[in-house]
# Entry
Amino acid sequence: MPIFTAPDGTRLAYRRVGEGEPLICLPGGAMRASAYLGDLGGLTAHRQLVLLDLRGTGGSAVPDDEDSYHCARQVADVEALRAHLGLDRIDVLAHSAGGNLGILYAAAHPERIRSLALITPTAWEAGVPIEPADRLAAAGLRKGEPWFDEAYAAYEALLAGREPEASIAPFFYGRWDDTARAHAALDAEQANAVAAARYIDPARVDAPAVRTALAALDAPVLVLAGELDGVPAPAKAAEIAALFPHGEVAVQRGGGHFPWLDDPGGFVRTVAAFLAPSVHGVRLPGGNRIAYRTWGDPAAPPVVLLHGRTEDSADWTDVAEALSATRRVYAPDFRGHGLSDWPGGYAYGQLIEEVREFLDALGLDRVDLVGHSMGGSVALQVAAAEPGRVARLLLEDPLPPFPVDPPRPPAPRPAPEEVRALDYDWEVIPATDEGANRPDPAWTARLGAITAPTLVLSGGPASFLPEANLRRLAELIPGGRAVTIPVGHLIHRSDPDGFLAELKGFGMY
# Structure
């Protein structure tokens, strides 16, 4: 385990887990060894976690001065770690009580913060207390759980200063299952009770000064709350996010205080999207967060690229880089794909509506629209629903709005471990197969409403989509025409030069 020395001479330990850009991880507890963070639900697939054991916990030494357990004094430890790693600016993830340390570090060293992710944080040092009523209100959401009555009585006793007669741990997990029980069982041996008692001192909190410093932080900040957590509850998390000029709040559905255990995939998608410099996010009116990538000059004419089923926006990278010479390129991840939310519900009507909401959210009043496969089907209906919004429409081997013949049979669900490894929500498959087998008849009827010049690219005999159906589709669209590039369904990958040549000839760049 690597060691570095704090300014007061205390030897501190940390671990590196995963690959990629380093992410400094500050544990909570308060003062619990960083081992409880694990791999943060698989975030190691996107970033290298630098898991710091705070002084007196895990592999770090016990300091000579117990007062140095106070979180304000540990700011120097974080700065020493940054210097030890040779990093000019750092991405920081702080959990629970570690949120106070992350906040104080950002206030003291704003120039060193590239991004700050606060995961179910407390923010006592910024004057945002968690009241007993907040905790009990969140606990009340779990009424009906078999353990509720006993655990709720214990929580009331603890908050009233009495000795509880049962564990309150179930309230801190979205699911009180074997994984949660095993995680909670390690708390006592991983925590330093003496250090925890000194970590926050209300008499030393200078909230006005901290808030003033945070108001000047020019870095993105994510505050992630669990829907079922009371430390903090989602409303309190929003209050914390409001302390920052570039703060945003995300609420994980069904999440507790350790959201990476409750829904590892959802947690990783939210945090990875926030941390990725090339990925942006926008929350739609229904609450769903859509991740998207951009290329090119923001002032250039916009073009929006919609990916195919089971893909994500990164699939367009080569095309987008070429287009970005003259265009501002936007490529969203559909719901249930990539780094967007996976909320369930993947009927074509929902996908179509969310693309329209995405354009609204970004203020894109008139765009060129490109869609591949499933994305082409969605683009087609967006252009039909809002003809004045789409200037040009290019459909790459799209699924036309005609019933598939023969119908697609029910897809067998893969094994659970295979489902977990997917980069998309498997439920997309049956939902969109249903849409392919039984498309809304109105979709064909309203093709005549499309006013944009439309180019339909077919992959020819090598594609699973009949070329004759795509030519029929083009004939039903006023100003539509069909071109065949006989390389199969993935035209933009199999023949990128040919694909780009068609875009160029169509006036898209």
Remarks:
- The chain has 20 helices and 16 strands.
- The chain has a mean pLDDT of 97.
- The longest strand covers residues 11-17.
- Residues 41 and 265 are 7 Å apart (CA to CA).
